[in-house]
Amino acid sequence: MIFVWGSRGRTKSISQGDFFCPDCNSRRSYEMMEVKKWFTLYWIPVFPMEALGQYIECMGCKSTYNEQVLQYDPEAADARIEAAFVIATKRVMFKMALADGEIDDAEIAEITSAFSNITGREIEAEDIAAELEAARADTSTVRDYLEDVAPHLNDSGKEIVLRAAIAVAKADGHVDPEEVSLLADLGSALDMPKAYAKGILAEEGIAA
Q: Is the same domain home to 194 and 132?
């Protein structure tokens, strides 16, 4: 008698749920699929030999992903990015204002107004003292600070932060050459293309 034996992979669904599908760009149902190698006799699966792995399959587009895709939450990611640029914008504005020493009520009023115009948000009164203290305690230069936060900002956030720094520089009615040089340096610290940063300065009436 001739025995025909071998092995083959078999896939089955082991769990279901919903997730954000990168290909569909929306929430979809998924199945977690498990692949096992089975011993076959006369091409009939008899018993499983070993697990080969698992993957996620979107029930909408049928794309497959590593299990880590279930951890992806774009809304949470967007919230983190937004929080990062809001914090960076406030910190840069106060650090710019403190660069020449102290900051008076008129400068604080300019900062709060500019912040609202640029970000569409308000700086709460109780935040001002905390921001001032944080800016004073942070001994890094504005450039050093921005080099640290730049990796956490998207392109839009970087532009908003640069425009915030410009607004503070223009608050006294003129921008001197040292401030122009600093603003161009901040664009570099934010890892913005030189032409892009220069274009933003030009829009704001600053020739770099």
A: yes
Q: What is the pLDDT of residues 159-177, one digit of tens each?
A: 988 998 888 888 877 788 8
pLDDT in tens, 129-170: 888 888 888 888 888 988 988 988 889 889 988 998 888 888
- Same domain (yes/no): 64, 78: no
Model confidence pLDDT, tens digit, residues 101-127: 677 777 888 888 888 888 888 888 778
208 is a domain residue: no
First-to-last CA distance in the chain? Answer: 89
Query: Are 112 and 66 in the same domain?
Result: no
DSSP string covering 62-128: --EE-GGGGG--HHHHHHHHHHHHHHHHHHHHHHHHHTTS---HHHHHHHHHHHHHHHS----HHHH
| 27 and 113 assigned to the same domain | no
Three-state DSSP state, 35: strand
SS (H, E, C) 38-57: EEEECCEEEEEEEEEEEEEE
Contact 199, 159 (CB under 8 A): no
3-state class (DSSP) for residue 4: coil
Q: What is the mean pLDDT of the chain?
A: 83
Distances (CA, A) of 147 to 83, 101, 133, 141, 187: 17, 23, 21, 10, 10
Out of 20, 40, 71, a domain closes at 71
Query: Could you tell me which residues come within 8 angstroms of residue 136 by beta carbon, excluding any fewer than 6 positions away?
Result: 98
